[in-house]
Design a protein that fits this description.
The protein is α/β, with parallel strands linked by helices. Helix content is 44%, strand content 17%. It is built from 15 helices and twelve strands. Helix 2 crosses helix 15, helix 4 crosses helix 15 and helix 7 packs across helix 14. The longest helix has 26 residues. The radius of gyration is 21 Å and the shape is globular. Bound molecules: nicotinamide-adenine-dinucleotide. The site of nicotinamide-adenine-dinucleotide has 24 residues, from helix 8 and strand 7.
Length: 439
């Protein structure tokens, strides 16, 4: 039964490594962004101290039996940043670079996001440090179930509600839900399916949740286009990451007539100035696992990808992609952040100097948590909404969030990221003041 450390490391791809690009603390970046906004509005120093910390940090180490009978140990995280606006809410990520610093940052962003689009949730995030591509589907199921068991009552339908993120999906959410419900008394189970969102439709999911984040990205891009009198039918765009967020954003923006000219994911980058059919690329990726090798575009390297001339760039993969090194390469008018934290503070500074417009992550990709809220409400009320209802309610939330951020940016004469922080912070400050601090 004993497992050799070297074997485990080999299989997990070196479990303690942080991906290239993570040169510094992501959470330190979040605090930098927060401080910049807090200084501008003279944010209450006491509330500032509270919001700089995460409320709870749960780290679990748990064993799982592999298909060949060996036992592997895994490390899982759930960080709960704040719940003054409502239950903790945020995704679960399966990735070798998952670590406590990253999860802290992602949890904190969730708090701002829900505050900006005005939904009654707090911020949380979680994940397991592993490369899911190295495990069979049965192993992933057992890892997911044992992780859920280890988290126990640290999640719950009225307390902390996970959702999909990088390398997790509706099937994984169904396993989380099933495991959580199996740990409850039988007569409690039926009223707790809202312990996760992003479930398969048949298992209580919401229509429109799968595309929600990409749809939200596109709704905000439409608002930007109106503001700048841009006809999206005449524009080009590029997307980094062709998973849930990137592929949906590409399809939906493509449906508005915008032309996809380059795409990149973990398997490589491709470009075609004449245009790539997003739906055809989705079918190709479904069969091949990535955009690399796609026949109707030519392979390009990372620098050529980021230097592609286009109107819109949608980063929809990982953090810290737009940096001091890469921001000067960009050849676009607008960056619409589908991913969380794709731009670091230096990247921000350079984009501002170069007058590249930005729809920041905590606004741009909030569509996922908005429709998660709709799913949660439908479960609580035993309702099932039509897609049109979900989409129109999502649009309203995204348009309202966009308008608030634009107004704040104009009022203070500041960049859009700082403005988005201010919108979220003002709401939280008010609630903290009203509720006071116990005891
Ligand atoms: P996903 O697992 O479905 O897709 C991730 C994509 O990124 C894949 O195409 C992968 O190949 C690519 N990728 C990974 N590392 C890369 C790298 N170094 N360079 C280029 N491409 C790389 O994940 P997702 O759910 O689409 O999430 C993507 C981003 O959007 C993450 O930052 C996530 O936190 C954020 N986000 C997701 C949701 C959601 O609802 N899923 C909501 C809000 C924000």
């Amino acid at each position: 039964m004993a497992v050799k450390e070297s074997e485990v490391k080999k299989k997990r791809g070196g479990d303690k490594t942080i991906e290239p690009g993570h040169k510094y603390s992501l959470h330190a970046n979040v605090i930098k962004q927060f401080d910049k906004a807090a200084d501008l509005i003279n944010f209450d120093p006491d509330i500032r101290r509270i919001l700089k910390e995460t409320k709870n940090e749960i780290v679990v180490h748990f064993p799982v039996k592999m298909d060949d009978g060996r036992i592997e140990m895994f490390t899982g995280y759930r960080v709960q940043h704040d719940d003054v606006l409502g239950p903790f809410k945020g995704g679960l990520r399966y990735h070798p670079a998952v670590n406590i610093d990253e999860v802290r940052a992602l949890a904190t962003w969730m708090t701002w996001k829900s505050a900006i689009v005005d939904i009654p949730f707090g911020g949380a995030k979680g994940g397991i440090q592993l490369d899911p591509h190295r495990y069979t589907i049965n192993e992933i199921e057992r890892i997911t179930r044992r992780f859920t068991f280890s988290l126990g009552n640290n999640i719950g339908p009225e307390y902390d509600i996970p959702a999909p993120d990088v390398n997790t999906n509706a099937q994984i959410m169904a396993w989380v839900m099933d495991t959580y419900l199996s740990m409850m008394a039988p007569n409690e189970r039926q009223r707790c399916t809202h312990v996760v969102t992003g479930k398969p439709i048949e298992a209580g999911g919401s229509l429109g949740r799968d595309k929600a984040t990409g749809q939200g990205v596109v709704y905000t891009i439409e608002e930007w286009a109106k503001d700048h009198e841009v006809d999206l039918g005449e524009t080009t765009f590029m997307v980094q990451g062709f998973g849930n967020v990137g592929s949906w954003a590409a399809r939906l923006l493509g449906q508005l007539g915008s032309k996809l000219v380059a795409a990149e994911d973990i398997t490589g980058a491709i470009g075609n100035a004449k245009g790539i059919d997003p739906q055809d690329l989705v079918s190709y990726v479904a069969g091949r696992g990535g955009v690399g090798g796609y026949q109707n575009a030519k392979p390009i390297d990372h620098k050529t990808f980021l230097s592609t001339k286009a109107d819109i760039f949608i980063p929809a993969a990982m953090e810290s992609q737009i940096t001091a090194e890469t921001a000067p390469w960009l050849n676009v008018r607008l960056v619409a952040e589908g991913a969380n934290g794709p731009t670091d503070p230096e990247g921000d500074r350079i984009m501002c100097e170069r007058k590249i417009d930005l729809i920041p992550d905590i606004l741009c990709n909030a569509g996922g948590v908005v429709v998660s809220y709709f799913e949660w409400l439908q479960n609580k009320r035993s309702e099932f909404w039509e897609l049109e209802e979900v989409d129109s309610k999502l649009r309203k939330k995204m348009v309202a969030g966009y308008a608030k951020v634009r107004r704040t940016a104009e009022e203070y004469g500041i960049d859009w990221r700082t403005a988005a922080y201010i919108v979220g912070m003002v709401r939280l400050e008010k609630v903290f003041r009203e509720r006071g601090i116990f005891p």
